[in-house]
Amino acid sequence: MDLNLKEKVALVTGASKGIGKGIAEELAKEGCHLIICARDQVDLSQVVSELEKYNVDVLAVPTDLTDEQQIDNLIHKSQERFGKIDILVNNAGTIGDPLSFMELSTQQWRDIFELNVFSAVTLIRKVVPMMQHNKWGRIINISSENGEQPDPDMAHYNVTKGALNNLTKTLSKVLAKDGILVNTVSPAFIKTPLVESMMQDIADKEGITPDEAVQAFLKNKRPNLVLERAGDVEETASVVTFLASDKASFVTGANFRVDGGSVASV
Fold first, then answer.
1. Which site among 27, 119, 149, 226 is 20 to 30 Å from 73 CA-CA?
2. Active-site residue 157, yes or no?
3. What is the pLDDT along the chain (266 residues), one digit of tens a residue?
4. Where is coiled-coil annotated (predicted)?
5. How far is C-alpha 201 from the chain's CA centre?
6. Are 5 and 245 in contact (CB under 8 A)?
């Protein structure tokens, strides 16, 4: 299916690995030119090399998204290269330290909000004028099952994802008149390098295989994940790519769960 994304320009944050990298690749397959950012130049350069086969223009800008001056530099370089940004995917984020509510410091709360929420807010404010000028835009915020189904040991992370969900709904109402659609994608337990590392740690600790660690994790931590497996990065990236296209032109303010049925609520 042709999603009519050729020559569109997409900015994907946190694109050096995992879900962000997968999203960048799916968009490249559809002919999107790309701006990718993350903190690590080496990882970004590797992604650029891997995307060369799709014959699209890729700009990689190492960026700390908690620093507004670096965000300004990212936007400036993007405008210099492409003159526009059609699609913004706010994927960058952190889970923070897995501590109980009472153990979390004020600074830990501030730090996770800086990256998970404020970076998205800042990027949206800087990108929206370009989208308004062209009367077309797509903003896709990558949230998490935790935004709807909180983990008791991840209070600060849960709250940032809930905030991102609310931001999506709010902006869908604000920006609809400008032809800008805003949606959320909420993954759960996706096979990223981070998750694979977590499963290996469990396997090493318990003296079991990584596959057995996955099953133990699902049983103990994700009993509602009815598909009983980890999701693939491509399964999240394909939903994002659909939402970036004209095939989703009547979809805004929605939260697409890519969670294997993990969230128990309707």
1. 27
2. yes
3. 789 999 999 999 999 999 999 999 999 999 999 999 999 999 999 999 999 999 999 999 999 999 999 999 999 999 999 999 999 999 999 999 889 999 999 999 999 999 999 999 999 999 999 999 999 999 999 999 999 999 998 999 999 999 999 999 999 999 999 999 999 999 999 999 988 988 998 999 999 999 999 999 899 888 999 999 999 999 999 999 999 999 999 999 999 999 999 998 88
4. none
5. 24
6. yes
